Amino acid sequence: MSTNTPTRTTKTDRIPRTPEPRSDGFAVDGSDTSLGTNLPQRMGELLWAPMLVMALMAFAAAMLLGVLRADVVATTPDDAVRLAQLQHVTAGVMFIGFTAVLSAIAFAIARILGVFRDGGGQLQQATSGHVQTLKMPASAKLMIALMMMGMMAIIAAVIGHFVVAAQTTATADLLAAEQAFVTLEAVRRIGVSLHLVAIAFGLATIIEVLRFQAVRIGELGAAPRSGGT
Amino acid sequence: MTTIAWIERPPLTERPDAQTWHRNTGVAIAGLGLVIVAVAVAVNFTTAPAVGGGSDTAGTLAGTFAASTFGLGVTKIGIAIILIGIVLSLWRRVNAVGVALPALRAGTTTGGPRPATGEVDTPYGPASATTRPPEPLSIHRMAELLWLPVLAMGAMALTVGLLLGLWTSSLAGGSEAFRVASAWSQGTLFLGEGLLLSGISFLLGTVLSSLRRGGAEVQESLGVSVQTLKMPATATAFIALMAIGMMAAIVQFVLYGVAATAAGDPAAYAVWVSWLGPFREVALGVLLAGIVLALASIARALGFQFHRLRQLAV
Fold it and tell me: Which residues pair with A131 in a beta bridge?
């Protein structure tokens, strides 16, 4: 254990922890008690369900708007302004749903990582009195960054759709509305792609955590029951 | 060597921290998907100002739509590969726990009477206690059997959809042939996306199955009662949403086929595609919502496992 490294506390859990060197390359913090969950994991615990509900509501609303637009196409196909408005609003509402459901997946992954961190810490605390907690891997940081980028891209596109829908009031606006739709569709797609890559990084983090836990539990079994590590 | 769900179970002799190629390969493939989408999106940006002008942009946009949807599918394939790595890592963890737990339990309850069986209340919901590991759930068996064929079908549909999309882009925009090709391309691409998400859902079901089987295996090896968490409501809802989403993905494919038969009448075709667009996206959204619930179920199962491990180790 490194004794020269200063002990630090965080605002969130205020539990003293010290970086500890390991020969197998895992970067860990050592502490006497479980560190519990970190802020992103607590956010995941709190937000996955509301995001899911929001997504389901948005999908239902977007489907209704799609049916409404189909009705306009069937009954008053010459009302191009209304059709353009509905096209933009439907896409906007649909992608509120997509950013919400993709964020819910990322939050659910963060929640799983929180269960690993808290559960692993409590098990170590109970069996050896000393806890090693994996530091946040780069893949987890990338997950957070990419998820935020994806969310911002989609929200920007959604706002764009609503603004264009509001500004499309006459036949003269139709061309600009059509061009804007193509651009905003591209922004939405890159947003979804960023979200998905964020999820990939989140799942990759789970593999890293599982590897560390498998090693650590072996160490617990090998160490004397009352001793630290 | 035991095989679990098309996956070879890691042997007990394997190092617990063994690196799995699935992690890096999956991330790389997911990144490749992002690159494909980025290229398609860049073409979209450059094409947008020409929309409504003299040139025929419909073909270009059909091509970029197909390419970007394909790119999203490639990222999903990367995610599926990482999930296979998670299943392998879970079994390595089971191996490690199986070796370590008897040592941790030394001097605690070894030799005591066998705990009672029946219903058990836990902080993570009701569980059943049995002397032997419970039979695998039929939904778990189904997930273990189907994830690979469904993923393979999804990848094939996605590739066919991409080829159809590229063919569409070579046709004159506004022609009947263009509408027919466009309908089949969109339907096939979203069928592929739906199947890929279903394959991912089945892989998540396999993760849940591995948690259940691995936990039971470790408990049985210790000679204690085997406590197994009952299926939580989130898991039941996951199955329902997955089934609805998968059916909707298939239905949209069939309906795009119907729309293709109406391509000779532009007005009727326009009605079809105006509501099929949102419908196909809702199908994917429902599958994604199911995935959220699968992950929530995994979190609950893991929480229960740690609870049980603490009970057994202390």
Answer: A31
Name chain B contacts of A157, Cβ cutoff 8 Å.
none
Which chain B residues in 38-97 lie under 8 Å from chain A, judged by CB atoms? 38, 40-41, 44-45, 47-49, 51-52, 61, 64, 68, 71-72, 75-76, 78-79, 82-83, 85-86, 89-90, 92-93, 95-97
In the DSSP assignment, the letter for residue B54 is S
How close A1 gets to chain B, by Cα (Å)? Answer: 21
Q: Which whole number is the average pLDDT over B46-62? A: 88
Q: Which residues of B touch A49 (CB under 8 A)?
A: 296
Among A73, A96, A98, most B C-beta atoms within 10 A, so best to mutate, is A73
Tell me the per-residue pLDDT of A16-72, one tens digit each, with 9 for 90 and over.
889 998 998 899 999 999 999 999 999 999 999 999 999 999 999 999 999 999 999
Distance, CA of A89 to CA of A158 (rounded, Å): 8
ipTM of the complex model: 0.94
Q: Please state the pTM of the whole predicted model.
A: 0.93
Longest Cα separation, chain B: 86
Query: DSSP assignment of B109-154, as one string?
Result: TTTSPPPP-EEEEETTEEEEEESSPPPPPHHHHHHHHHHHHHHHHH
Q: Please report the number of interchain residue pairs, chain A to chain B, with beta-carbon separation below 8 angstroms.
A: 233
Distance of residue B201 Cα from the nearest chain A Cα, in angstroms: 12
Residue of B nearest to A181 (CA): B48
Query: Residue B157 above 60 pLDDT?
Result: yes
Lowest mean pLDDT among B71-85, B97-111, B239-253: B97-111
